[in-house]
């Protein structure tokens, strides 16, 4: 079975946001699979997807604080500045984290570890709504 759909995420503030339940709720055929894969592709270059801690929100805060420290918006050698000082750092962070995830599906659920969740990394101060393509394959 193959299934593909677009998921629209509401605008979020800069930082990392746990979106696991939002993704699962947007892919109803997931519950019908005994085994398979869910591939998520974010259709943006200034946000990212990653799999990380799902319990303590301090982890998401600390990850964002680390990025802001390591990739500030005022580096003098940045040339791509027409879209604002947060844009080039957002492109770098999106490339470092990536914009795609492929997750195992087992018995109608994502086969995640106990403390794992899907994060959206919003790397712009005002990134706006985000779109993903979710492709489900399995039996």
UniProtKB/TrEMBL annotation:
Bilayer-crossing regions: none
Gene3D superfamilies with a match to the protein in the record: YjbQ-like
Superkingdom of this protein's organism: Bacteria
UniProt-listed Pfam families: YjbQ
InterPro entries per UniProt: UPF0047_YjbQ-like, YjbQ-like_sf
Family: Belongs to the UPF0047 family.
Protein name: Secondary thiamine-phosphate synthase enzyme
Organism encoding this protein: Halomonas caseinilytica
